[in-house]
Structure formats: C-alpha cells, structure tokens
Write a structure and sequence with these properties.
With 334 residues, this protein is an alpha/beta fold. It is built from 12 helices and 10 strands. The strands form 2 sheets. Strands 3-4-5-6-7-8-9-10 form an 8-stranded parallel beta barrel, surrounded by 5 helices. Strands 1-2 form a two-stranded antiparallel sheet. β6, α4 and β7 form a beta-alpha-beta unit. α3 runs parallel beside α4. It starts with a strand and ends in a 19-residue tail after the last helix.
C-alpha cells in the first residue's frame, strides 16, 4: 500500500480507502461486512470512509464494530454530515449548527471512537449560512472530536468560500469527496484547479463508475444476476446512466488495454483516478472480501502516457465533463 498527504497537511491516508456506502447495514450481512473490513486491513488499507446517512446510521455502527480492537492511532476514520437521519425531522438534516453538533456525537458513539480523523460536509447546504456551518466545524475541531474537516461534492466557488472561512476560523479544510472516474470527469475543469490552488485534495468515490468499468456488463445483453444493475434497493438507479450500449461497448475496448498494462479492469479503473496528482485516495467498496485484494493492487501503479491515450480513445468521448454536474440539493427535504 502507498500513502499520500491529504491536502496541504501532514496527514497521510492510504491511496485506497475502504468505503461502506451501498453495502454495510443494508445490502451485506454484518458478518460479511466485518470480513470485508478485515480483508481491507490485511491488504494494508488504513483509511475508512462512511457517513451517518448510510443505511440510516447502521453503516457507521457496522464499521465501528468491525474496527473494535484495532489500534486507533493506526487508522484514519472518516464520516460525513448533511443527510437526513433518525426520524428525519425538520432539524435532522443539513448543515445547521444544531444538526452538526448533534450528528458528530451520534457518529462518535456508533463508530466507538473519541474522534474522527476527517469530518466532511456531505453536500453544500443552501439553507444555512456558510459562516454558521464553518463555525460549528471549527468548534468540533477545537473540542477534539474531529482532527480535520473536508467536504463532498462542493463546487469550485463553494470550496473557495469555505476555505477562506476555515482560515479565518483557524482550522484546516483539506479535502473534497467528489465522484470521479474515466466516465465521470466533471471535476477536472474547475474543482481540481481550485483545489490545487487552495491546498485541498480529492478523495474520490465510484472510481469504477458503479462497477461499469469492471467490464462485466456487455452491450446488448442483460445485466448478470446479483449485480448492482439488478439491485432495486439503490444500486440499479445509480448505475442506470451508464447502462447504454455505446458506453458498454467503449468499456469493452479497455480489456486489451488493461491486459497490456498487466492489470485487471477494476485495477485499471482505480489506477486511472490515482494518476491525477490532486487525488489523494480512491474509495472502493466490496460486498465480498476477495474483491478487495484485486482492487488494492492499483495502489502505486504508474500508467504510461500511451496507456492513458488508449483509455481516452476508447471512452474519453463518452465521459461526462460538464462542471455544472457538481451540485448539491437546492433545498433540504424538510
């Protein structure tokens, strides 16, 4: 496993982060989830990402239980706040001071830890003054409940405004967690340049485009039984944008490229996002422990310029690049 600094800080994270978004507490039994966490640790992953909203807090509970007994100082544990949790009342979501201060306590209890290494604003909250949000984060850092602060899916302008306030308030905003893959490149035009200017790293989610870049979905054929595209509990909706024959045909053209590079298709997808110097870590998920051993081999891989050209030739024209696709809900649910 290789490690990278997160933003303009002395804090290092593993190039591969284990995330439990669509699995733990919902799609995978708890004992299998724990086996996945154990496999991640065995593979050298030290960084774990979750959120209070995943499976309505159950994912945090599963992760906390799975990491119990590990040396806390050797781990980097990330969680997030914004989405509706609990009974989903009027103040059970967003980035108000009330919701943030209550949410961090709930997350720490479920994760069975005194602090999280990184606490992230899961989306931008247009209904709360940014000053209120950033002051709450500053207080959480001063209380020792979070060591660093990050955000997720913030635009370049939002990052600049949040970063300026964090400096005024005396804490570090060091990361952004956007979607990023060969097929979803919306951060490249504006978010990445702004982040480089500010000293903010990307921790990217869905580097395999919900599994499409694994190559297991074939044009003109039904999705394999048990795959994410057939999961009506959430996976199918997330993946449907890529289940077009032109996209799936382009992905199939990556198979010889991966073979030539000595990589599996998932390894190629994860290695590709890690070629971006602004990316500190790629988040992978797993519903089976053996999936982790394959993905972690992408750490430390250097893709030659010729390989990157072939990837662009195969699917570059199919990628979504519109920076306007980096967006947060205009209104809260309540």
């Amino acid at each position: 496993m290789e490690f990278r600094y997160l933003g303009n800080s002395g804090f290092k994270v593993s190039e591969i982060t284990f995330g439990n978004w669509l699995t733990h507490g919902s799609q995978v039994e708890n004992d299998v989830a724990s086996q996945c966490v154990r496999a991640a640790l065995d593979a050298g992953i030290s960084t774990f990402d979750t959120a209070d909203v995943y499976a309505n807090t159950a994912a945090e509970t599963v992760l906390g239980e799975a990491l119990k007994g590990e040396r806390r100082e050797s781990l980097e544990i990330f969680t997030k706040v914004y989405g509706a949790t609990g009974p989903k009342g009027k103040n059970d979501l967003g980035l108000s001071r009330k919701h943030i201060m209550e949410s961090i306590n709930g997350s720490l209890h479920r994760l069975q830890t005194a602090y999280v290494d990184l606490y992230q604003a899961h989306r931008y909250d247009f209904e709360t003054p940014l000053e209120e949000t950033m002051q709450a984060f500053a207080d959480i850092v001063r209380q020792g409940k979070a060591l660093y602060i990050g955000v997720s899916e913030w635009s370049a302008d939002q990052l600049r405004a949040g970063h300026a306030l964090s400096k005024e308030l005396g804490f570090q905003l060091i990361s952004n967690q956007p979607q990023y893959s060969m097929l979803w490149r919306v951060i490249e035009a504006e978010v990445v340049p702004a982040s480089e200017e500010l000293g903010v790293s990307q921790i990217v989610w869905s580097p395999m485009a919900q599994g499409v870049l694994s190559g297991k979905y074939l044009p003109g054929q039904p999705a394999p039984d048990g795959s994410r595209a057939t999961d009506q509990k959430g996976g199918a909706k997330m993946i449907e944008r890529w289940m077009r024959d032109d996209v799936l045909a382009g992905v199939q053209e990556l198979k010889p490229v991966a073979e030539e590079a000595g990589l599996s298709m998932p390894q190629l997808a994860v290695a590709w996002v890690l070629q971006n110097p602004n990316v500190a870590s790629a988040i992978i998920g797993a519903s089976r422990p053996e999936q982790i051993a394959d993905s972690v081999k992408a750490a430390g891989v250097k893709l030659e310029p010729e390989v990157l050209k072939k990837i662009d030739a195969a699917i570059g024209s199919l990628a979504e690049r519109d920076p306007e696709q980096t967006k947060s809900p205009a209104k809260r649910e309540h």
